[in-house]
Specification:
With 505 residues, the protein is an alpha/beta fold. The protein is built from 14 helices and 19 strands. The longest helix is centred in the first third of the chain and has 18 residues.
């Protein structure tokens, strides 16, 4: 039986987003648990679909002793403040030093953390961990599919393994897979050769979805590479909203021999390059999307879904922009549901007034700067809810949501779901909690880019990706980058090699 230190620290940093992640952002619960330390970690993450949960289950099944240190995460945003990074890092380092000796370390990281004082947050975490345990203790980490994998991350970890699905329905499986790598290293008292390859183009966040091409085929190719002397392989699509030198997609391969790792990495990188032109899809303006949705309703058997991708809290948006909502109201659309808008002020007002009350107030845009501002209407309070419930969908499964007071506000037949915290609308339970059945709606406007597909795609007659104004820029070519490495192109080749399925982007 081995003693395995277990820790996690998740943040996806959009350096163009309006708000930074301070220490309090990691302390509070939202769609994921609040910061937890020591034995509390084991109970807080139990039953929640997280990499660390899968890792803990795998460790127990193999008869090893997990030594819990610390786990925390914060909703994607701009930089992690220096204060937050250093305080959490110090807590993690102290817990690890106190736990020694350990036989190995598992870390649940995102891979795209940028702090206010350093570009490579995850690489720095791994460096500090390695400084404490030395060269002989194997260190493995699971990563998000949107990791911006750096040379430092590969150097300080013995193995990195990234999710293979987007929507991320394999988070727990990836944690378990990483533990399998650790166990193999301990059993055979060996380390693997490493190969890292970076693409020369960015992949826009919407078009790396593994439910459609080209990602679907590329991840199937990746799985076929593993075997023989190839021990592990990952393709991280990168997070293109981070202005750092090492932003961008990466291939990581680990092998018993250097040749095996290098050859497999070259093959996978070549496969990605061959499909470069397929990482594309249609983006609609808010007005275009509303008009197309109304056109599709005549033959719709399920809701038309409008993905408000540029205000996705899962990519650093505040979840409060009103561009798509204004387009729906302006077009006189009936029977649409918009969610979830982050507006704690509106939620409090609704709870104070009570169901059946009519409030004259502005909704939305209390956080995001530069927009048209809150949408002022006469809003009827239709439903109130606590914001505390358990998610049920494939991605958020088991997560104990703590979104603060929630309300359903109506103007005509259009309904808006508001919460007191930003949350990506990626789980049907969010609507069920406020008495709305998503399958019964004609139009659903969701603040999400891709993750909503895990729980909503099966309902949809069509999905339209909407580029209403917001900080989660769908096309990286529109961003004012200053720090990217020379030669990195801001998007894939302009000419596609294949046509994406209609409505599937």
């Amino acid at each position: 039986m081995a003693r395995i230190a277990v820790a996690g620290w998740q943040h996806e940093t959009n350096t163009f987003a309006p708000l930074q992640a301070d220490f309090a952002a990691f302390e509070r619960a939202d769609e994921w648990p609040a910061m937890c330390r020591g034995a509390e970690l084991l109970t807080r993450v139990a039953g929640v679909h997280l990499p660390v949960s899968g890792a803990l289950e795998a460790l127990r099944a193999a008869g090893h002793e997990p030594v819990p240190l610390l786990w925390c995460g914060a909703t994607p945003s701009a930089h992690v403040t220096e204060d937050a990074f250093e305080r959490i890092s110090a807590a993690l380092e102290q817990a690890l030093a106190a736990a020694l000796p350990v036989d190995g370390i598992y870390l649940d990281l995102h891979g795209a953390m940028v702090a206010a004082h350093l570009e490579d947050g995850d690489g720095e975490i791994l460096r500090r961990v390695r400084r404490i345990v030395g060269a002989d203790v194997p260190v493995v980490a699971s990563l998000d599919l949107h990791a911006n994998v750096t040379a430092a991350m590969v150097h300080y970890a013995d193995a990195l393994d990234a999710y293979r699905t987007y929507p991320h329905v394999d988070m727990a499986a990836t944690g378990a897979r990483a533990v399998g790598h650790l166990e193999t290293m301990l059993r055979h008292r060996t380390r693997w050769h490493k190969a890292l390859r970076k693409t020369d183009f960015l992949i826009p966040i919407n078009w790396g979805c593994t439910l459609v091409e080209p990602a679907r085929s590329l991840y199937a190719h990746l799985a076929r590479l593993i075997g023989g002397d190839v021990m592990a392989a990952s393709f991280a699509c990168g997070f293109p909203l981070a202005d750092i030198a090492e932003t961008g997609p990466a291939v990581m391969v680990y092998g018993r021999t250097r040749r095996a790792a290098e050859c497999a990495a070259d093959e996978l990188l070549a496969a990605v390059a061959e499909r470069e032109g397929d990482f594309h899809g249609r983006l609609y303006t808010a007005g275009e999307a509303v008009a197309e949705a109304e056109h599709l309703l005549g033959s719709a058997s399920g809701p038309v879904i409008l993905a408000d991708t540029q205000d996705n809290p899962g990519g650093g948006g505040a979840g409060d922009t009103t561009g798509l909502l204004r387009a729906l109201v302006g077009a006189g659309v009936e029977e649409a549901v918009v969610g979830v808008i982050n507006d704690a002020e509106a939620a409090r007002a609704a709870h104070s007034a009570g169901v059946g009350s009519v409030l004259e107030m502005g909704v939305g845009e209390k956080v995001t700067p530069g927009g048209p501002g809150p949408l002022y209407r006469r809003w009827e309070v239709l439903r109130l809810a606590s914001g505390t419930f358990t998610a049920t969908g494939p991605m958020y499964r088991g997560a104990r949501m703590e979104l603060g007071p929630m309300a359903v506000l109506g103007t005509g037949l259009l309904r808006v779901v508001v919460a007191s915290k930003p949350v990506q609308t990626a789980d049907r339970s969010i609507f069920h909690h406020v008495g709305i059945e998503p399958a019964a709606q004609r139009i659903l406007a969701l603040k999400s880019s891709v993750h909503f597909r895990a729980d909503f795609q099966a309902l949809a007659t069509a999905i339209l990706v909407v580029a209403a104004p917001g900080p989660v820029t769908a096309d990286p070519r529109a961003l004012p980058f200053r720090k990217l490495r020379p030669g990195l192109r801001l998007g894939p080749a302009a000419t596609p090699t294949a046509t994406p399925p209609t409505g599937s982007a």
